[in-house]
Write a structure and sequence with these properties.
Shape of chain A: globular
Number of helices of chain B: 13
Strand content of chain B: 15-25%
Number of helices of chain A: 5
Strand order of the largest sheet of chain B: 3-7-1-15-12-13-14
Helix content of chain B: 10-25%
Number of strands of chain A: 5
Shape of chain B: globular
Oligomer: heterodimer
Strand content of chain A: 5-15%
Distance between the termini of chain A: 21 Å
Strand order of the largest sheet of chain A: 2-1-5-3-4
Radius of gyration of chain A: 15 Å
Largest sheet of chain A: 5 strands, mixed
Radius of gyration of chain B: 26 Å
Largest sheet of chain B: 7 strands, mixed
Largest interface: A-B, 40 and 31 residues
Distance between the termini of chain B: 34 Å
Structural class of chain A: alpha+beta
């Protein structure tokens, strides 16, 4: 089967009913989606499938054949953070970090659709994303900062042209060496 | 002091927001096997285990039972000379539901789970004990070779006790005795990263262990003790924890992964399921706390008698430490001159309990604060004034006789009163954390409170 992961077409060999999470993590080595509960309850495995946030632990590969998949690796790199990533970093929206990739994907989808979300919109986008460290206050503040452009770092969303030649393992964001 | 008060970026923040922070489950090495554990489905039973069918399965590379563990029965306090009590893998008895009995390493997680199913165990069920209040009943099932509570506090006492001042005298002088029972429940830490370990046998005979531990050197010691290895044969990689909250202080996955790696000669990863994390991992201890305070009608707490039954679950782990800390804090943020405290580490057939954010103290604070409010209600006095009156002052001593150099109770309560818009009389508003003289301490009590020198 075929996936387009962070803009790169990939042939995958996992069995059709393999959860997308396992295809990404075990076959493609893309480890930002986390196996927090593997039963759709925690949100840490969230990736975008055709632009929609989905629980990759519950989504069989067969349902994604040919789909565009986006993970945090496709959002930005350390050298060039997306505004949403920069906001999470600057506003302390991440503590242990384990839930952060799922939160980022869910809220990236939110901001793509609703560039100026209300607090209610943000809370709804975060529903089902469990953070056990913080009280969500700083997570919501991060998303509000990203939405309002209150980000000190580079405000431009990176593209594939931004690949960092000094990081050979990440010539294309999301692609393992 | 450039960092104090400054808004500094997290050192690990960029890794977190780019998905590049490497947690243990993100580490993968060639030839890696996956582990699963056979866990007891019952709370308390005698067992007989037969692993032969699982060992013969294709793709199963190692099956480990207690017989494979060089030093199976271990206790965290062995270094202090206290014998161990908890088997890494159950031998002939299981004492809690979820207790690991045998381990399997196989090509993938599904096959490892199938092999676990193929292990045969006979369970001869015994009556479980869940209620700490019944542990001392003459007919109670004995669930531990130590008896039903931990017997190894200093001087081989079977409890952590505090005796201070003259409690009988305090009760004689009291106008009213206010008592209460407080029973906060167990809490699961529930980190979003489950317990995970990866053990890699190295060509030089050492083991590299990727661990989710919150206490890396401690976990090294635990693994070395079980393996009976010197520390220099272990290389631990840790420091990145996907949430712990105390639940990753106990060493959970490291030693089993190490044993399977040694027996199979292959790298082995053990990743707990969410179900295992919720059902089988340690929790915060549930407590049974009884408090009886000797109180004057104008709101002075003269003495406290307290009994704590700390539910340790099936094994001791760090519970004696938790109860010790609990005993030191059992007056809360207040000074009570006459004390009689007994704390027991009681065994039950629940999962072993452990540290969690404010080990030994958080549930206690719930109890002591509720109790102060209860006293205020019984006396019909303002709960803020009652707290300010009895608050710790500089020079007071804690229950374990440590002088308090800078207790913050008074300023904290004044701030809370402000936050609530709560009016206070001028003499309370003027209170400070300094010594109590002039702070409304009635003259007739100065010389009468137990041992007067212990008031400060």
């Amino acid at each position: 089967m075929r996936l387009i992961v962070n803009g790169v077409e990939r042939e995958v060999e996992s069995a059709p009913l393999t959860p997308l999470l396992h295809v990404l993590r075990e076959e493609l080595g893309i480890t930002s989606p986390k196996a927090g509960c593997q039963q759709g309850g925690c949100g840490s495995c969230t990736v975008l499938v055709g632009g929609d946030p989905r629980r990759s632990c519950l989504l069989p590969l067969a349902a994604c054949d040919g789909a565009e998949i986006m993970t945090v690796e496709g959002l930005g790199t350390p050298a060039r953070l997306a505004p949403l990533q920069a906001a999470f970093h600057e506003q302390y929206g991440s503590q242990c970090g384990f839930c952060t990739p799922g939160m980022l994907m869910a809220t990236h989808a939110l901001l793509e659709r609703t560039p100026s979300p209300s607090r209610g919109d943000i809370e709804e986008a975060l529903a089902g994303h469990i953070c056990r460290c913080t009280g969500y206050v700083k997570i919501i503040a991060s998303i509000e900062a990203a939405a309002s452009g209150d980000v000190a770092s580079d405000k431009r969303t990176p593209s594939l042209e931004d690949a960092d030649p000094n990081e050979p393992d990440m010539l294309i964001p999301g692609s393992p060496a | 002091m450039k960092a104090v008060g400054a808004r500094l970026p997290r050192y690990d923040g960029i890794g977190h927001v780019t998905g590049r922070t490497q947690y243990v489950d993100d580490v993968r090495v060639p030839g890696m096997l996956w582990a699963k554990a056979l866990r007891s489905p019952v709370h308390h039973a005698g067992i007989r285990v037969d692993t032969s069918r699982a060992e013969r399965m294709n793709g199963v590379h190692a099956v480990v039972t207690h017989a494979d563990v060089p030093h199976n029965v271990y206790g965290h306090l062995e270094a202090l000379g206290i014998p161990g009590d908890e088997p890494l893998l159950a031998e002939d008895e299981v004492r809690y539901k979820g207790q690991p009995i045998a381990l399997v390493a196989a090509q993938d997680e599904d096959l490892a789970a199938e092999a676990v199913e193929a292990i045969e165990v006979e369970y001869e069920e015994r009556t479980p004990l869940f209620d700490v209040r019944l542990a001392g009943d003459p007919g109670a099932e004995k669930i531990h070779h130590w008896g039903n509570w931990y017997p190894h506090f200093e001087g081989e006492m079977d409890r952590r006790q505090i005796r201070k001042g003259d409690l009988d005298r305090a009760f004689d002088q009291a106008d009213v005795i206010v008592s209460g029972v407080y029973r906060p429940a167990a809490i699961e830490h529930c980190p979003i990263e489950p317990q995970t370990a990866l053990a890699v046998p190295e060509p030089d005979g050492r083991l590299t262990i990727y661990s989710v531990t919150q206490a890396l050197y401690f976990s090294m010691g635990v693994v070395a003790a079980h393996l009976q290895w010197p520390l220099n044969k272990l290389k631990f990689v840790g420091g990145t924890v996907g949430g712990g909250f105390g639940g990753k202080v106990d060493t959970a996955a490291d030693t089993p992964a190490a044993l399977l790696a040694l027996k199979s000669g292959r790298p082995v990863k053990w990743r707990w399921t969410r179900e295992e994390e919720l059902l089988c991992s340690s929790t915060r201890a549930p407590w049974h706390m009884e408090i009886a305070d000797a109180v004057t009608k104008d709101g002075w707490i003269l003495g406290r008698r307290m009994l704590t039954l700390h539910d340790s679950g099936a094994y001791a782990r760090f519970s004696p430490y938790g109860v010790t800390k609990h005993s030191f804090h059992h007056t809360g943020a207040y000074t009570i001159p006459n004390l009689h405290f007994d704390g027991y580490v009681v065994f039950t057939n629940r999962v072993p309990t452990t540290a969690m954010r404010g080990f030994g103290v958080t549930g206690l604070s719930f109890a002591t604060e509720l109790h102060i409010t209860r006293i205020a209600k019984v006396l019909g006095v303002d709960p803020f004034e009652l707290r300010l009156k009895n608050a710790n002052r500089i020079g007071d001593t804690s229950p374990n006789r440590v002088p308090l150099s800078d207790p913050s109770t008074v300023p904290t309560i004044l701030e809370i009163a402000d936050a609530f818009g709560h009016e206070l009389p001028a003499e309370y508003r003027a209170m400070t954390r300094d010594r109590r003289e002039g702070d409304l301490l009635p003259e007739h009590l100065v010389g009468q409170l137990g041992n007067p020198e212990e008031w400060h």
